[in-house]
Inverse folding.
């Protein structure tokens, strides 16, 4: 029963990528993506733009597990929130430049991910989701109890944003965005590199047929734990930047609703697409910002309904659907030109 | 010593809520292969419904004990027919996500309608007060809640093991294809079983209503602890769900009594230990990985 339950997501990596290295479209899209990244704070309020990137990387870290390894972590808030607190504490007490604090937070996330991953990978599929969820909640209770350190219900307020004395970055969210975006970009590159590496190929093998991967001599559990820790580090990086951007870390960051929200973003963007996370984050964060600013109270009604609808009708997500349409179009044209 | 007995009773009463709900979760998982995330929300709905029935229709606790599970059964049937059914063929993670989305909707809807402050509910007449056994004072309602959930768990156990309906449901759980081959319409049983599981969660909610704060959020922590319960007991196992339910209730009560700071954390440490030593849970079947 257990192994069939691992997420067999409708991702077909066996199909040749239509955007092969020689295809100019690949570079056009890459440039377009970078252009959007640069222009974003001109179009929307810079802190919101920063939120989109943070949630985007967070979703990518979840997709690394869900889409490429077949593990649904429902406790990623532990790493996002854990790093948010750790980053805040480092920045507050030691006064280091914030990128250093964020790296410290990410390392902390990886450290707590090791025992959690070690225990969680003993179960697969739905059990993995439940076990990670429970461990994340345990961290939530610990943070709630350790009031002296975390500020309890009040959260950690006034996290400083030191950046080598460059005042523009320290005070203006517009310039802060570019430094934060650079850090997020590093995280995205790491995720991309992991997926497109021999290590990443083994992960997909583990996802598609764990028994066979094991028979071929791969230590499946070790691969799972390793990718779990890498994913936690990326979630931690995102959470750290998020905390510095808001200058605030709260228990909300550790709640299971946060774990749920990032899974929603991942599924909305498209499971197993990597880039989809950024698109999903763009939609969800902008929507929430719009609803909050228009005074609408029941955000849960909207996000919950979106969740139900995409799971029922739109399982490929935005990026996945776009990719399938494009693929069909290109393949269609190729066959026609051959005739 | 008297305090210890008091805590034990409280633990067993809380354990009863967990056991009833976990039983519902286990039955649904067994037959449909669905982990119902909205189980905590259904527990909350059970409590809210009994409070609303009392306030607006003047329906008392004893009637609510019958009416609310029936209503929740209907709710469960609708949920299965309209939503869950379409994803049964797919990976169970999709239904996990679907019911998560539903949870957000249900909790938010209740919050919008009834606010965030708790709804009032009294301990029903005849069950208030305390009884003294020697030097020990025991709350009558806690004794009642504990006994009642044990009776329901035993009744469900007998239903599953001793009746023809139970036989069909168990067969459908273990080998759906062979059950079908023997001429049983397995699909026919899926909907009532789902409704039944939801009804059990609703029943736990009614039982909890007189002793706990009735708010939209009351299911949020409940569902996480419920997951810990089924991980400890072994998700496939009905007996495991009940035993682990009472076990977690006791651990929680002793934790609150003797180490209030660590009360909630202890449950998860217990879960971590079980996952470490026996990954399939105390009563679960071994996984073939």
């Amino acid at each position: 029963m257990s192994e069939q339950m691992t997420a067999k997501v409708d991702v077909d990596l066996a199909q040749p990528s239509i955007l092969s290295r020689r295809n100019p479209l690949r570079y056009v899209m890459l440039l377009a993506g970078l252009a959007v990244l640069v222009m974003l704070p001109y179009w929307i309020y810079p802190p919101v733009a920063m939120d989109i990137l943070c949630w985007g990387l967070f979703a990518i870290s979840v997709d690394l597990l869900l889409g490429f390894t077949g593990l649904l972590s429902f406790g990623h808030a532990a790493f996002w929130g854990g790093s948010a607190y750790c980053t805040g504490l480092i920045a507050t007490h030691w006064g280091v430049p914030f990128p250093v604090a964020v790296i410290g937070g990410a390392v902390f996330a990886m450290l707590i991910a090791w025992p959690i991953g070690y225990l969680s990978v003993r179960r697969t599929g739905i059990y993995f989701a439940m076990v990670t969820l429970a461990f994340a909640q345990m961290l939530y209770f610990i943070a709630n109890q350790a009031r002296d350190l975390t500020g309890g219900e009040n959260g950690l307020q006034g996290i400083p944003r030191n950046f080598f004395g460059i005042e523009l970055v320290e005070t203006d969210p517009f310039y802060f965005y570019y430094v934060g975006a650079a850090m997020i970009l590093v995280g995205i590159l790491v995720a991309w590199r992991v997926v497109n590496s021999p290590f990443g190929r083994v992960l997909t093998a583990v996802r598609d047929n764990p028994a066979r991967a094991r028979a071929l001599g791969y230590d499946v559990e070790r691969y799972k734990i390793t990718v779990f820790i890498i994913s936690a580090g990326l979630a931690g990086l995102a959470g750290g930047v998020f905390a510095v951007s808001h200058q605030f870390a709260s228990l909300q960051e550790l709640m299971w609703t946060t774990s749920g929200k990032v899974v929603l973003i991942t599924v909305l963007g498209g499971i197993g697409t990597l880039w989809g996370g950024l698109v999903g984050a763009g939609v969800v964060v902008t929507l929430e910002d719009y609803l909050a600013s228009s005074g609408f109270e029941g955000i849960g009604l909207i996000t919950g309904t979106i969740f139900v609808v995409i799971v029922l009708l739109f399982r490929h997500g935005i990026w996945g659907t776009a990719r399938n349409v494009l693929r069909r179009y290109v393949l269609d044209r190729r066959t026609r030109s051959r005739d | 010593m008297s305090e210890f007995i008091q805590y034990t009773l409280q633990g067993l009463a809380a354990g009863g809520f967990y056991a009833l709900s976990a039983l519902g979760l286990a039955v649904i998982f067994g037959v449909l292969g669905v982990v119902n995330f909205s189980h905590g929300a259904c527990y909350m709905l059970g409590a809210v419904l009994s409070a609303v029935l009392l306030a607006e229709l003047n329906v008392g606790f004893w009637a609510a004990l019958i009416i609310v599970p029936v209503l929740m059964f209907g709710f469960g049937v609708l949920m299965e027919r309209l939503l869950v059914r379409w994803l049964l063929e797919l990976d169970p993670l999709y239904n996990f996500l679907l019911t998560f989305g539903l949870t957000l909707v249900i909790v938010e809807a209740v919050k919008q309608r009834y606010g965030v402050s708790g709804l009032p509910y009294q301990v029903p007449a005849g069950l208030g007060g305390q009884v003294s056994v020697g030097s020990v004072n025991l709350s009558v309602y806690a004794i009642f809640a504990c006994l009642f959930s044990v009776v329901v768990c035993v009744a469900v156990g007998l239903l599953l093991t001793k009746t023809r309906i139970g036989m069909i449901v168990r067969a459908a759980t273990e080998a759906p294809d062979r059950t079908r081959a023997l001429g049983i319409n397995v699909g026919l049983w899926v909907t009532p079983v789902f409704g039944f599981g939801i009804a059990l969660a609703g029943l736990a909610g009614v039982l909890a209503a007189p002793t706990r704060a009735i708010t939209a959020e009351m299911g949020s922590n409940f569902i996480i602890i419920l997951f810990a319960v089924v991980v400890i007991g072994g998700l496939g196992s009905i007996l495991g769900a009940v035993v682990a339910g009472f076990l977690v209730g006791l651990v929680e009560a002793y934790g609150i009594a003797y180490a209030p700071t660590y009360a909630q954390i202890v449950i998860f440490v217990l879960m971590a230990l079980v996952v470490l030593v026996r990954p399939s849970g105390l009563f679960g079947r071994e996984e073939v990985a």
